[in-house]
Write a structure and sequence with these properties.
The strands form 2 sheets. Strands 3-2-1-6-5-4 form a 6-stranded antiparallel β-sheet. A 4-stranded antiparallel β-sheet has the order 8-9-7-10, sandwiched between helices. Strand 8 (446-448) and strand 9 (453-458) form a beta hairpin. It contains 16 helices and 10 strands. It folds into 4 domains: 1-43 and 265-309, no CATH class; 61-259, no CATH class; 317-371; 383-526, Alpha-Beta Plaits (2-Layer Sandwich), CATH 3.30.70.270. With 530 residues, the protein is an alpha+beta fold.
């Protein structure tokens, strides 16, 4: 079995097999992708049509919808309405009955306006009209075969949106347990039988850019908002609702782009099968010809090379030359192998020597590079390493990572220590401060960039916990300063300044460093340590 799998014919067959598989995959995937593009365009057309359809329905009742929206925004937190309604006629009848009893012979909207009604009747109206529009949106959504259709009201002052007509019915309990970080929570009674009204979220304009484009321009957006979360992989489209020149809200419609058209998949599989059968017969014929004309000749050459590999006898070169008759490429290869065998031993010895020399040189270069980036006194990274780290941060900024901070630390009274106790004690103070910095900021890179200056780069967990770490650092210095058992030069103090990257005011890492340095000097001035 091993001999068969190692044979050239087997390997050529394997290559043809891989080629066949790749060809089939490319053909099938290309067909599938093209059909899915058509399918996707159809779905995108559906969400646009659904948005236009719902917009038309609302505009047909524009004045009533404006009254409904204004009242909803003012009172939705007061309304308790059931979640499991399937029709709105009951709620409509209840409202009309209450109105007729309170205003016999009057007509709602003509003789009596919503704002003139008692609160109880107003609430009944909102429940009726809310059920009507929720069912209207759900019915339209189902008719178009889409998963979500909703109506939201943006607030461009704080980038909040309120879902007036939600795409999915949720209870107050569902909202309380919501895991969405951008959800705006409010105190509600946890009741699974009620419909939660006015779901509110903070929608970051950098993330929800298509949504806010539609709102600010008042026009259909240029693209789709792509979502890939626990609700599924969807494309969202937003149709601005404008009534009498006033922007009212956005009609949102979504499609599940991951939905598979099974007929398209079956067509792609049938195409793969047909092409595969043709390719298999062609490959079998090609393998027979290759084996007949070339493989047998290569097998004899292979046997001679194997003998050389076992015996390391350069006399085999003459045998290979004798077998390599003819003008084809295999004969030429045999002659080249014979010539190569004669030089191989010397070449291999030379190659081993060169490899050993290169390995030793590489190890030496690595060691020197590491040494060049280490501070001789403290053993931590030095100014050269800091400059390299700054270049890394600049690259990271260019790629969109804008979360980091810089802590500047300066040892106080180093000159006084050197003048009073000597430079050796000054070095002890520097190393004492270095130990405190490295202990507190153990998960962040620490650099000594000057005689008494240290810099810490904050990212990830240390960035999130920077306030706690700075407090811990100051507490550690206070403990040393008050420890009477230590020598005077060991009771160190230091000024600390921290700054964090702010896209609104920082163009590069240097801006953050300058603010941290300025904050450190301000602190040093407060400590009267200048």
């Amino acid at each position: 079995m091993d001999k068969k799998t190692n044979s050239l014919l087997f390997k050529i067959g394997a290559i043809f097999f891989v080629f066949t598989v790749i060809t089939l995959l490319i053909s099938g995937i290309t067909t599938y992708i093209n059909q899915m593009k058509i399918y996707k365009r159809q779905c995108e057309d559906n969400i646009r049509k659904l948005g236009t359809y719902l917009e038309t329905m609302i505009l047909n009742e524009s004045q009533g919808f404006r009254i409904y929206q204004d009242y909803f925004l003012s009172h939705y937190q007061e309304i308790e309405m059931p979640i499991n309604f399937t029709e709105y006629e009951t709620a409509k009848y209840e409202f009309e009955k209450m109105f007729a009893k309170a205003y016999p012979g009057k007509t709602f909207g003509v003789d009596v306006q919503l704002s003139e009604l008692p609160e109880e009747i107003q609430h009944a109206y909102l429940i009726y009209i809310q059920e009507y529009w929720v069912l209207t949106f759900e019915g339209a959504r189902d008719s178009f075969g889409l998963p979500y259709a909703y109506y939201l009201i943006p607030n461009e002052k704080n980038y909040h949106v309120i879902y007036m007509i939600d795409g999915e019915r949720t209870s107050p309990a569902d909202h309380v347990n919501s895991q969405y970080e951008n959800a705006i929570h409010r105190d509600v009674k946890s009741d699974d039988s009620l419909l939660y009204l006015g779901d509110e979220y903070y929608n970051d304009p950098e993330i929800y850019n298509i949504e806010w484009e539609a709102w600010f321009t008042g026009n259909d957006p240029t693209g789709y908002q792509v979502w890939d979360n626990s609700w599924g992989h969807t494309y969202a489209y937003y149709t601005p609702l404008i009534i009498d020149g006033v922007k009212m809200g956005l009609i949102g419609t979504e499609i599940e782009v991951s939905a598979v058209n099974h007929e398209i998949l079956r067509n792609a599989l049938r195409q793969i099968l047909g092409i595969g059968i043709i390719l298999v017969f062609c490959i079998l014929g090609m393998l027979w010809v290759i084996n007949k004309l070339y493989i047998s000749k290569l097998s004899r050459l292979q046997a001679s090379v194997r003998m050389y590999s076992l015996e390391k006898d350069s006399g085999i070169a003459a045998s290979i030359e004798k077998e390599s008759t003819g003008k084809d490429e295999i004969s030429s290869l045999g002659n080249q192998i014979a010539a190569m065998i004669l030089e191989l031993e010397n070449y291999m010895r030379s190659l081993v020597e060169t490899t050993n020399e290169l390995s030793a040189t590489k190890q030496e270069a690595t060691a020197m590079s590491e040494l060049a980036q280490r501070d001789a006194l403290t053993g931590i990274r030095n100014k050269t390493a800091y400059d390299n780290e700054i270049r890394r941060l600049e690259w990271s900024l260019a790629e969109g990572n804008k979360e980091f901070g810089i802590v500047m630390i300066d040892l106080n009274f180093l000159k006084r220590i050197n003048d009073t106790y000597g430079h050796e004690q000054g070095n002890i103070a520097i190393k004492k401060l270095c130990n405190v910095v490295c202990t507190v900021f153990e998960h962040s890179p620490v650099f000594r960039i000057g005689g008494d200056e240290f810099v810490v780069i904050l990212e990830n967990r240390d960035l999130r916990n920077s306030d706690d770490l700075l407090r811990e650092f100051n507490e550690a210095l206070d403990k040393l300063a008050n420890d009477e058992s230590l020598e005077p030069w060991e009771r160190i103090s230091a000024a600390v300044g921290a700054a964090y990257f702010n896209p609104a005011e920082d163009d590069n890492v240097s801006c953050v460093f300058k603010r941290a340095d300025k904050e450190m000097y301000r602190r040093k001035k407060e400590m009267k340590a200048l």
